[in-house]
Give the backbone structure.
Amino acid sequence: MNRKRADGDEASAGPPNTDVLRALVAGARQRITSAEDLAALSAVEAELTGRRSALATWKRELGGLDEAARRELGGELNEKRRVLEALIAERRAALVEVARAGVLEADRLDLTEVIPAPGPGHPHLVTRIREELEDIFLGMGYEIAEGPEVETDWYNFTALNMPPDHPARSGQDSFYVDLGDGESVLLRTHTSPVQIHLLERGVLPIYAVMPGLVYRRDTPDASHLPVFHQLEGLVVDRGITFGDLAGTIETFTKAIFGEDVRARLRPGYFPFTEPSAEFDISCTICGGVGCRTCSGVGWIELGGCGLVHPAVLESTGVDPEVWSGFAFGFGIDRVAIMRHGIEDMRAFIENDVRFLAGC
Ligand code: DAH
């Protein structure tokens, strides 16, 4: 009888004896415990207990033996199969555990990792300057007022001493929506119409600043935006003079830009003030010596101002013989670029998160 391949997957020729079966189990045990993963174990299992295994072949051959030998060998073959199956089940359980641990390790979520929370952020630079300006004027006893961004032609122009044919309208020409009853509306081109709303309240005296958005038919460039912020000022009281206006401008420009900055008034023209002036501050970049930012003149134009025109007071029923006042208006965005040395105003609307990021 050939019994050389008793532990293999091929059947030996003829029934095995006890030694052969013991050797089969010993060899099988070694192969089972050294199977490195579930796939390798399944392959070993097929070889040891599958249909083409030695055990299966011997079982098929039992029929050729006499009854006593058949019973004895049959019992032994069954017992060896149970031993092998137990060894395989044990190894499989261990390999399943290893595989599960591998998956867990790969999926591991490190809950101890510290990721810094994003900072709370801060208001946009323009908002900060607006709030700072509001604080300065609140400190001087002014109230903060607001008006609508959609205005009628009357508030935006006519009541401000700019009747329909007035040439000063062309400088702020805009898009109009005709309401059909002889009135039209537009996005306000300046904050000056809020002066009219305040005067209409009929509560005097007035000491107010009015911040807000204004809309112009302008192409954006380094120093212009079609949508920008203005701060309007209006004082109406008894005996207000040009000296009060000059002192107020001097005071708030120093408060916002620092004590070293000087303000000056130049004669100007606005339909709603008489006399009118434009006001400049000494250049914050060169200190007034002259540089590229101020085109070499040492001064930067900030806004317009003047004594409230009697026609404006009259258009709202305020008696110019009793009351007088001053008004001013300037761009908040322009103050922001000068305070922070920003070269191009368009940076404000380009969604650069550094304008909002937490510090
Ligand atoms: N509304 C003017 C503009 O947008 C600025 C201005 C000038 C406002 C003179 C005033 C003023 O109140 O008195 O160009």
Notes: The chain has two domains: 3-107, 125-358.
